[in-house]
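Hi support team,

I've been running sequence recovery on a batch of backbones for a student project. Most finish fine, but this one hangs at about 90% for roughly twenty minutes before it completes. I'm not sure whether the input is malformed or the queue is just slow. I've pasted the structure tokens below so you can try to reproduce it. Let me know if you need the job ID as well.

Thanks,
M.K.
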């Protein structure tokens, strides 16, 4: 097929075969060398449009970028809550804005990706708070399960066994007070019911612990399992704590962050 070509220097026109499109040629009138442009065919994309589409970042990259910002934001939120015992509501707002801004820079446009940005903000904001709660719980457990407390447990067991097979109530009252098996502020406040409860719940386990010669590692594993079970039964796990700790101001700033992430992306129109 023959196509029309125009010299960019002198604007002279001539016709050539379309197979020459994209090749260098010389103008017959002025001698200017130039490259013959690829002709635009109706129903196809023009060269500039093709280049724009090819250079536009894929939506997947925008989501990945938003995810990275969300992870960084969640880490910052958790660090502030855990290390500094401080949570800044504005940070939740900033996380949402950061996710939206980065996603737009990477090509995110429209309501659909706006919803994706909002979802990432939700995961980041509440995920960071959950991580903070989880790490605080782990730290609290570690503070209890120390070698010092293991030695206390060993001493408690050996001292109890030394009392004999059937110590009297009076002897147990002294033992319970000295070894802090009671919240009573004096021995006189320890009742017979307290002593019977101690016999039922603690006496056998103390003898078994002493007889087994339990190592620190085994003691720690058993104690940790018991602590986690007790915390879960009492509704003191990370998720339960998250629900308890969420204040109205936390919810307000979280909603602001989520809405901001959505609006920044959704208001951008697709090109």
């Amino acid at each position: 097929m023959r196509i029309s070509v125009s010299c960019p220097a002198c604007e002279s026109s001539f016709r050539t075969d379309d197979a020459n499109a994209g090749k260098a040629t010389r103008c017959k009138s002025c001698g200017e060398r130039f490259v013959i442009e690829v002709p635009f065919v109706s129903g196809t994309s023009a060269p500039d449009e093709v280049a724009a589409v090819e250079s536009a970042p894929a939506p997947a990259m925008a989501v990945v970028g938003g995810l990275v910002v969300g992870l960084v934001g969640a880490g910052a939120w958790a660090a502030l809550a855990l290390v500094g015992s401080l949570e800044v509501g504005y940070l939740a707002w900033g996380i949402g804005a950061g996710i939206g801004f980065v996603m737009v820079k990477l090509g995110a446009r429209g309501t659909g990706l706006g919803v994706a940005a909002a979802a990432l903000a939700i995961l980041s904001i509440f995920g960071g708070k959950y991580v903070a709660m989880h790490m605080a719980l782990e730290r609290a457990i570690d503070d209890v399960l120390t070698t010092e407390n293991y030695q206390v447990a060993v001493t408690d067991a050996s001292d109890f066994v030394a009392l004999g097979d059937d110590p009297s109530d009076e002897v147990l009252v002294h033992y319970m007070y000295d070894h802090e098996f009671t919240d009573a502020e004096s021995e006189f406040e320890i009742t017979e019911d307290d002593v019977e409860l101690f016999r039922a719940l603690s006496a056998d386990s103390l003898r078994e612990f002493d007889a087994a010669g339990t190592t620190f590692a085994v003691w720690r594993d058993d104690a940790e399992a018991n602590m986690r079970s007790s915390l879960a039964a009492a509704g003191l796990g990370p998720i339960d704590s998250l629900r308890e700790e969420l204040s109205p101001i936390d919810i307000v700033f979280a909603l602001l962050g989520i809405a901001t992430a959505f609006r920044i992306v959704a208001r951008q129109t697709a090109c």
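--
Follow-up from support: It reproduced on our side and the slowdown came from queue contention, not your input. The chain has three domains: 1-33, 59-134+246-266, 147-233. No action needed from you.
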